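Final report, Chapter 2: Outcomes

The project's central promise was a pipeline that accepts a single protein chain and returns its three-dimensional structure in a standardized token representation, suitable for archiving and comparison. That pipeline is now operational. To close this chapter, we reproduce one record exactly as it appears in the project archive, with the input sequence first and the structure output second.
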Amino acid sequence: MSTPAVTNEIGIIEQALQLSRDMLSAAQAQEWEQLASLEAQREPLLRREHSADVVEQLGEILACDRELRTLVRQARDEAAAQWQRQSGQARAIRAYAQA
């Protein structure tokens, strides 16, 4: 039988896990502001000290985080590539205009 403290901790971890899933959905939809907002809500829940009773949920949260890092890295790289393309186009337009 769970004690009230363990039950409360499990509720906190379940909330953090749901926020992690929501963060992943936001990243997949490229909703970066929503992702940042959800992460701010989740962080204090994870910074608590946790018992061994929630190890499985913490593992799933870490799995979500790994996938999030991949999605954010891909989006960052794509944004950088797009910026470079646009910067190159702007240079070409300026060079053409000066010719």
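Archive annotation: The two ends are 81 Å apart (CA to CA).
This record, like all others produced under the grant, will remain available to the consortium after the project formally closes.
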